[in-house]
Design goal:
The chain is an all-alpha fold. The chain has two helices and no strands.
Length: 71
Amino acid sequence: MRAALSILGLVIVLAIVMLMMKQQAKSLAPRPVAQPAAASEPAATNLPQQLRQQVDAALQQGAARASEAQP
């Protein structure tokens, strides 16, 4: 009897975990964006430039902090 209840408990826990995984997977699924193609095109071409500028700024900030930290 004890073994049967243990197995039943494990099955219930497994079902709960699977339901939570299903909900998480749904939230990770990409959602379609309802934007015209012409409106999203300039943003897409500008994104690499913005990303490059942010990376350059972060690298310069890191280099400045490293030079200040050295005795």
